[in-house]
Amino acid sequence: QVQLVESGGGLVQPGGSLRLSCVVSGFIFNNFDMSWYRQAPGKERELVARITATSGSPNYLDSVKGRFTISRDYYKNTVYLQMNSLKPEDTAVYYCNARRVRSLRTTDYWGQGTQVTVSS
Predict the structure, then answer these.
(1) 109 and 97 in contact (C-beta within 8 Å)?
(2) Helix, strand, or coil (residue 87)
(3) Do the strands 78-83 and 3-7 form a parallel or antiparallel pair, or are they unpaired?
(4) I need a surface site. Which of 41, 72, 82, 95 has the fewest CB within 10 A?
(5) SS3 at position 1
(6) E-assigned strands of the chain?
(7) What does the pLDDT profile of the chain (120 residues) look like in tens digits?
(8) In whole angstroms, what is the distance from residue 112 CA to residue 95 CA?
(9) What is Dmax (Cα atoms) for the chain?
(10) Alpha-carbon distance 68 to 3, whole Å?
(11) Are strands 33-39 and 18-25 parallel, antiparallel or unpaired?
């Protein structure tokens, strides 16, 4: 059974930090690119950060570059998103995603999401 379980969201003041975690099971973690997406009310889901299966150079949404860091732990089957200098516009539900593209077939797994609210 595939599971992606996010945690670490919450309420934080502007300028604060949070670390999101996503623990995965039910598939081979090492074979999948891992990403964090977010969706704010009334907006489309957007890609925040992605790290490849081999931990190649991560990609970031322009608005989070220099503030957010994505990383993965192969022993713990976990991907993290360290978020610093948080801004109110970072408020959203954050989703963990696992993706594998093989032989032109894309496999996507999603977590249930964790709420991040940045407010004073």
Answers:
(1) yes
(2) coil
(3) unpaired
(4) 41
(5) coil
(6) 3-7, 10-12, 18-25, 33-39, 46-51, 59-60, 68-73, 78-83, 92-102, 105-110, 114-118
(7) 999 999 999 999 999 999 999 999 999 999 999 999 999 999 999 999 999 998 878 999 999 999 999 999 999 999 999 999 999 999 999 999 999 999 989 999 999 999 999 999
(8) 7
(9) 48
(10) 24
(11) unpaired
59 CB-near residues (< 8 Å, 6+ apart): 47, 49, 50
Specify the amino acid at residue 70. I
Residue 90's identity, in one-letter code, is D
Q: Measured between alpha carbons, how far is 100 from 32 in angstroms, rounded to an integer?
A: 5
Token pair belonging to 66: 């220099």
Contacts of 3 (CB under 8 A, 6+ apart): 23, 24, 25, 26
